[in-house]
């Protein structure tokens, strides 16, 4: 039995320790925030936060989260930080097909929670583990930057 | 944004099975025998024998089997499917299937290929033979371009169901009615017994134009056989290995020049690698050929082209649809001709740029304003191109050298020729509800290009209603009429225009509180010179969108690596309807084009693709790009909604040639091949030194 905190709640999973965290999140807990884009840790569509750090859940063994805190978009969606990001992503035109967006949002949260006022180069680097094939990235960087500008005290 | 949009992988179906294809491991061979492992209860092998209708995939023609028959023609071709309740068990069973092949000698390169999927030739002006015979100088150069993978972030995926004698297929797709027609043929069912539902689609770029029909048919057959919904979602490697890509090409130009370097005549020979099955290659080739002379008025020319059949993965649609290959080649060739004759490339090209009223390469007309002069002016303002070009032309020292390149391209809007009128016959519908909301019913899909927003804006604007009163869902063929596929940069210009007309009609008939329906049908523009697809004569397109790209780089001459310094795109897409959406299209398209020109290396060896994951097939990341300068020239097209023209594909086409030109200037080397990887640049630099 693997026990951990998932989106703020204590949970336990029947998964094998080497099962992919992505499958546990999507299958066992029915959380569809994390997406599978490559299954090899290259695209970041499955990204979630583990103790506040950005991780690709497709290459994280379920056993590794024993005793840790996991946050997916499904949990993050309830926060004021998410609502601001949602607003600025829409405003900046940062969403096209939407498949990379959950991972991008988690990457945004990961950087802003550490550095509430990142410059654009810092944001660029922070999302460089998340692939997007639609936007060319600049509008996503603008959206995160805009959230930082407006997020007085949120991060 | 909220992660609540349901992609096919997010939807569960009661009692669903998983499907895993067993694929050919040889490039060409006859199947002698298939040996299945012992299949546990509930697991089934689905083969060609289970196809109730025709085991041929309907695309333009029907030549590719849905499940391979006795012969396989490329590595990765689907032979049979193992279907059953558990994904892992299906995958294990599939890996235990033994296929005994009698191998045949495969065709693995364009040059080895004998058979073509399609070929065309056309010419203009005087016969070029005599001109070449008496020319002062003849310049010949061959250009090659590699594969490009669409790399939509959501892999291909479908679920098939069979209920009460009806096939239902749901999944990620661009063209619900293409899938419907294919499933009807394969299942032997009429239109009333096939239903296709698009689920939120995580990117397409052409990659989900034809391929969803293939897996749609495969899961439809499996669902009928097993009596369960059958899900098939490709893993990334399987997707990269087996789905259609941009055609590799080999394009040879010959120019007959006079003493001063003026072009007297041009010959173009365009060869595309179609892969194993024709699929969309015929139509892709047509666009390659229609772009072969670029944005230039060449007095005398001869164009020949063929899409050659090889024993490799079938190639298909990808944003630009044959044009990126030709524009890379002609733009680079023009730069080289300028260099050879000692002229500035832009000055050289300016002598030949087309303008309104000019005859196209097929005897059609550029009916509308061609805003090249305004685009050039704007580009100079934004990038200081000419000054930088002069500066970087002086000898550069040190490790980092700079270069700047420019390209000018067009994209013919909509389907080539008379296809809209003859085959597509688009139909749209608006339903006004009693609560005075208006529902848009079309078969076009929003695959990230923002179509739902743009369509809603058009209808809201005509009806003078707030956007919230306009409703639009993902298409379901039980509900929406066939307004054609989501391809060819046609959705906004053609379908958007029909919606504009439908909305105008509804406005006239509007009755508060009543339920009303309005339908509109496609009408062909009356100004067009009729298109003859056999002789390649007439107006291939009603109008053209235009793009000017400037790319500035800094190349490390020690490593061959180039870093982007500045990227600028000026576009004429008519009157843009939603500027933010258009900027997004421009940025995303240009970065795909830059990837095509630089890092997206995809090679085949012995018929097998060597790059099968995002680890080795490198699409650009956020670190590989810089802020882009994007601007639009408002050049209203009366045939489009609120003056808009096609936009989605245009944005990709010009980036690669502009990048290549910049690297050529930085390095002083001449290149004729993309992707221009650092390795190739370094080879040229060391070879030169």
Q: How would you characterize this protein structure?
A:
The complex is a heterodimer of chains A (about 160) and B (about 700). Chain A is α+β, with helices and mostly antiparallel strands. Chain A has helices at about 20-30, 75, 80-90, 100-115, 120-125, 140-150, and strands at about 1-5, 10-15, 45-50, 55, 70. The longest helix of chain A has 14 residues, at about 100-115. Chain A is globular, with a radius of gyration of 15 Å. Chain B is of the alpha+beta class. Chain B folds into three domains: about 15-105 and about 150-240, Aldehyde oxidase/xanthine dehydrogenase, molybdopterin binding domain (Aldehyde Oxidoreductase, domain 4), CATH 3.30.365; about 250-415 and about 540-689, Aldehyde Oxidoreductase, domain 4, CATH 3.30.365; about 425-500 and about 510-520, Aldehyde oxidase/xanthine dehydrogenase, molybdopterin binding domain (Aldehyde Oxidoreductase, domain 4, 2-Layer Sandwich). In chain B, the strands form seven sheets. Chain B has a seven-stranded mixed beta sheet, sandwiched between helices. Chain B has a six-stranded mixed beta sheet with strand order 9-17-16-15-10-28, sandwiched between helices. Chain B starts with 16 loop residues before the first strand and ends with a helix. The mean pLDDT of chain B is about 95. At the A-B interface, α3, α4, α5 and α6 of A face α14 of B.
Descriptors:
heterodimer, A: 155 residues, alpha+beta, Ubiquitin-like (UB roll), DNA polymerase, domain 1, 2 domains, 6 helices, 5 strands, 38% helix, 14% strand, B: 689 residues, Aldehyde Oxidoreductase, domain 4, 3 domains, seven-stranded mixed β-sheet, 17 helices, 28 strands, 28% helix, globular
Secondary structure layout:
The complex is a heterodimer of chains A (155) and B (689).
Chain A: E1 2-6, E2 9-13, H1 21-28, E3 47-50, E4 53-56, E5 69-71, H2 73-76, H3 80-92, H4 101-114, H5 120-126, H6 138-150
Parallel strand pairs in A: 1-5
Antiparallel strand pairs in A: 1-2, 3-4, 3-5
Helix pairs in contact in A: 3-6
Chain B: E1 17-23, E2 29-35, E3 44-46, E4 57-58, E5 62-64, E6 71-72, E7 78-84, H1 87-96, E8 98-103, E9 116-124, H2 128-134, E10 137-145, E11 157-163, E12 166-171, H3 176-187, E13 194-198, H4 211-226, E14 230-233, H5 236-242, E15 249-257, E16 263-275, H6 281-290, E17 301-309, H7 323-340, H8 345-350, H9 372-383, H10 385-393, E18 400-412, H11 419-424, E19 427-432, E20 438-441, H12 451-463, E21 470-471, H13 491-509, E22 516-521, E23 544-556, E24 562-572, H14 579-597, E25 604-605, E26 608-609, E27 628-632, H15 650-653, H16 655-667, E28 673-674, H17 678-688
Parallel strand pairs in B: 1-14, 10-28, 12-13, 16-17, 20-21, 24-27
Antiparallel strand pairs in B: 1-7, 2-6, 2-8, 3-7, 4-5, 9-17, 10-15, 11-12, 11-14, 15-16, 18-23, 19-20, 19-22, 23-24, 25-26
């Amino acid at each position: 039995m693997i026990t951990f905190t998932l989106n703020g709640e204590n949970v336990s999973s029947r998964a094998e320790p080497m099962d992919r965290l992505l499958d546990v999140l999507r299958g066992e807990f029915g959380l569809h925030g994390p997406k599978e884009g490559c299954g090899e840790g290259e695209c970041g569509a499955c990204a979630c936060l583990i103790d506040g750090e950005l991780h690709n859940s497709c290459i994280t063994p379920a056993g590794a989260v024993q005793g840790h805190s996991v946050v997916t978009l499904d949990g993050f969606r309830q926060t004021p930080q998410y609502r601001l990001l949602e607003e600025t992503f829409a405003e900046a035109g940062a969403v096209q097909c939407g498949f990379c967006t959950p991972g991008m949002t988690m990457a945004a949260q990961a950087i802003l929670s550490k550095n509430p006022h990142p410059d654009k180069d810092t944001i660029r680097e922070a999302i460089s583990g998340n692939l997007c094939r639609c936007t060319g990235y600049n509008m996503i960087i603008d959206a995160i930057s805009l959230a930082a500008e407006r997020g007085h005290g949120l991060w | 944004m909220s992660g609540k949009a349901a992609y096919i992988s997010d939807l569960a179906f009661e009692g669903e099975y998983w499907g895993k294809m067993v694929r050919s491991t040889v490039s060409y061979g006859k199947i002698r025998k298939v040996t299945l492992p012992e299949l546990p209860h509930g697991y089934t092998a689905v083969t060609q024998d289970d196809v109730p209708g025709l085991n041929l995939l309907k695309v333009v023609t029907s030549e590719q089997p849905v499940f391979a028959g006795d012969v396989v023609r490329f590595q990765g071709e689907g032979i049979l499917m193992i279907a059953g309740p558990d994904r892992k068990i299906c995958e294990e069973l599939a890996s235990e299937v033994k296929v005994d092949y009698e191998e045949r000698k495969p065709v693995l390169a364009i040059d080895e290929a004998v058979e073509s999927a399609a070929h065309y030739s056309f010419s203009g002006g005087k016969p070029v033979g005599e001109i070449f015979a008496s020319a002062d100088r003849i310049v010949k150069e061959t250009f090659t371009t590699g594969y490009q993978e669409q790399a939509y972030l959501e892999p291909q995926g479908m679920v098939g169901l069979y209920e009460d004698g009806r096939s239902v297929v749901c999944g990620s797709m661009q063209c619900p009615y293409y899938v419907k027609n294919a499933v009807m043929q394969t299942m032997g069912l009429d239109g009333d017994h096939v239903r296709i539902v698009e689920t939120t689609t995580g990117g397409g770029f052409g990659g989900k134009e034809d391929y969803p029909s293939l897996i749609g048919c495969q899961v439809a057959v499996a669902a009928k056989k097993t009596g369960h919904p059958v899900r098939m979602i490709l893993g990334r490697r399987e997707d990269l290995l087996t789905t259609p890509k941009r055609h590799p090409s080999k394009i040879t130009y010959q120019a007959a020049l006079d003493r001063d370097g003026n072009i007297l005549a041009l010959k173009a020979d365009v060869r595309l690698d179609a892969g194993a099955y024709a699929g969309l290659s015929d139509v892709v080739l047509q666009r390659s050929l229609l772009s072969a002379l670029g944005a230039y008025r060449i007095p005398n020319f001869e164009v020949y082209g063929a899409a050659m059949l090889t024993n490799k993965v079938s190639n298909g649609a990808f944003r630009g649809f044959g044009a990126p290959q030709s524009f890379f080649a002609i733009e680079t060739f023009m730069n080289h001709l300028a260099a050879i004759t000692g002229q500035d490339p832009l000055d050289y090209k300016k002598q030949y740029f087309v303008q309104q009223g000019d005859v196209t390469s097929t005897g059609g007309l550029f009916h509308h304003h061609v805003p090249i002069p305004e685009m050039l002016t704007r580009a100079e303002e934004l990038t200081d191109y000419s000054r930088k070009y002069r500066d970087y032309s002086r000898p550069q020292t040190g490790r980092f050298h700079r270069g700047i390149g420019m390209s000018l391209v067009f994209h013919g809007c909509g389907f080539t020729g008379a296809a809209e009128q003859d085959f597509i016959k688009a139909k749209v519908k608006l339903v006004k509800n009693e609560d005075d909301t208006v529902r848009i019913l079309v078969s076009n899909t929003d695959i990230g290009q923002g179509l739902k927003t743009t369509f809603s804006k058009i209808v809201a604007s005509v009806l003078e209603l707030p956007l919230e009163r306009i409703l639009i869902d993902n298409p379901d063929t039980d509900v929406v009429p066939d307004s054609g596929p989501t391809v060819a940069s046609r959705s906004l210009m053609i379908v958007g225009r029909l919606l504009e007309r439908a909305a105008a009609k509804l406005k006239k008939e509007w009755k508060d509180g009543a339920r009303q329906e309005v339908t509109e049908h496609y009408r062909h523009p009356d100004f067009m010179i009729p298109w003859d697809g056999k002789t390649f004569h007439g107006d291939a397109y009603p109008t053209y969108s235009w793009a000017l790209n400037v790319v500035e780089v800094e190349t490390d001459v020690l490593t061959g690596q180039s870093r982007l310094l500045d990227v600028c795109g000026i576009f004429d897409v008519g009157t843009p309807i939603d500027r933010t959406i258009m900027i997004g299209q421009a940025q995303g398209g240009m970065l795909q084009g830059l990837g095509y020109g630089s890092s997206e290396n995809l090679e085949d060896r012995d018929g097998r693709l060597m790059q099968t994951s995002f680890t080795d097939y490198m699409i650009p990341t956020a670190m590989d790009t810089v802020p882009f300068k994007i601007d639009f020239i408002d050049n209203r097209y009366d045939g489009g909604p609120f003056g808009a023209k096609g936009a989605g594909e245009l944005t990709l086409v010009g980036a690669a040639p502009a990048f290549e030109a910049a690297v050529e200037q930085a390095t002083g080397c001449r290149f004729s091949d993309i992707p221009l990887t650092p390795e190739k640049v370094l080879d040229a630099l060391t070879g030169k030194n």
